[in-house]
Design goal:
About 65% of the residues lie in helices and about 0% in strands. By secondary structure, it is an all-alpha fold. The protein has a single domain, classed as Hypothetical protein af1432. Helix 2 runs antiparallel to helix 3. It is globular and about 50 Å long.
Length: about 190
């Protein structure tokens, strides 16, 4: 039986074929599901579509600009206007996909608000937004994401792991995400150091 999330996944997947989205998105989706299990008061009908669609806007940004927008070792977006572009384009694409699926209009609007600021907005608008932000960032700690993110940040694995470890409290919103980050970080350290 195909679920609405399967349908969203299928329509979003072509937009993931850039900036390692084909690796990142399924991992972020898995983390979102894990986080939802710890926060039953959150709305999975908002969180899961938002995480599946949050980075679709990168497909609208040229590869050379994508790499210029990455967070550097100073924890500042190198090109914040490019990060904003992927957010606004992602919100637009999310609206198109969800409208095509006749998704609830109020939930679609909330999903678009979450996507439009998921990287550049430092505070969470709601628990749903916090879970999306946390699920998005957790791959920075896991053994699959670490080598990719370290390379993007132009750091060797050891310094990169120190870099992300120092940011668990400031990057992540929920206690469950912080616990997951520490567990993933320990796995990455065991594998890479």
């Amino acid at each position: 039986m195909t679920t609405i999330y399967d349908q969203i996944y299928k329509l979003a997947e072509p937009y993931w074929q850039t900036r390692k989205g084909e690796i990142h998105m399924p991992r972020a989706y898995d983390y979102a599901r894990q986080l939802l299990a710890s926060y039953p008061e959150a709305d999975e009908t908002v969180v899961l579509p938002a995480i599946l669609l949050h980075d679709t806007g990168w497909m609208m940004v040229t590869p050379d600009l994508q790499m210029q927008a990455l967070v550097g070792s100073a924890n500042q977006d190198k090109r914040p206007e490019v990060s904003r572009l992927h957010e606004t384009e992602g919100a637009r694409i999310a609206g198109e996909i969800l409208t095509a699926l006749n998704y609830d209009t109020a939930k679609t609007a909330e999903i678009q608000r979450i996507i439009d600021g998921h990287d550049t907005r430092r505070e969470a608008l709601s628990l749903n937004d916090a879970l999306v932000k946390d699920a998005d960032k957790l791959w920075r700690f896991d053994p699959v994401g670490v080598p990719i993110c370290a390379q993007w940040n132009e750091l060797a694995l050891g310094p990169y792991l120190d870099f992300v470890e120092a940011r668990i409290e400031s990057w992540l919103f929920t206690s469950r995400a912080k616990d997951l980050a520490r567990t993933l970080l320990a796995q990455s350290k065991a594998q890479f150091l």
